[in-house]
Amino acid sequence: MYDSILISVKKLLGISEEYNYFNPDLIIDINSVLMILYQMGVGSKTPFHIEDDSETWQDFFGEDVVDINAVKTYVALKVKLMFDPPAASAHMQAIQETIKELEWRLYSAESSDNFDPDKIEDIYADMADDHAVSRKRRVVKWNIEL
């Protein structure tokens, strides 16, 4: 659960843990995203950066864990857009929409006094419902325009 930040991002990007050629580039991009999270109030209460694969998610979060998997996904997607953006515009748009939603949910979770970590599954269920409703609206709109 609290593994190396650099290694976990590399895994999510499909880069082997042993392949170190891109580490300096990835570290710069990861640090940029960690700064964004700090400004959102997620994670460390002081600015945090990594220098190598020794810094862990535990170091970043301390005791204040919002949703570690959402943060890992957010960091990996933001780094992917900086480091290796997709060529297909549909893929790019899907990543950008996921990032926007994760930003909103992480910011909302951090800024809410009533946030209950046990309700994370409810939030993800709502996300799935929102996606289904949005898809249904597109289908209905498409049928009407025909």
Structural class: mainly alpha
Mean pLDDT, nearest integer? Answer: 82
What percentage of the residues does DSSP assign to strands (E)?
under 5%
Specify the biggest β-sheet: none
Contiguous low-pLDDT stretches (5 residues minimum) are none
Which descriptor suits the 3D outline? globular
Rg, rounded, reads 17 Å
What does the secondary structure layout of this molecule look like, with pairings?
Blueprint: H1 5-12, H2 23-40, H3 57-61, H4 68-83, H5 89-111, H6 120-145
Describe this structure in words.
This protein folds into 2 domains: about 5-115, no CATH class; about 115-145. The chain is built from 6 helices and no strands. The protein has about 150 residues and is an all-alpha fold.
Task: Please sum up the structure shown.
With 146 residues, the chain is an all-alpha fold. It has six helices and no strands.
Q: Notable features of this structure?
A:
146 residues; globular; mainly alpha
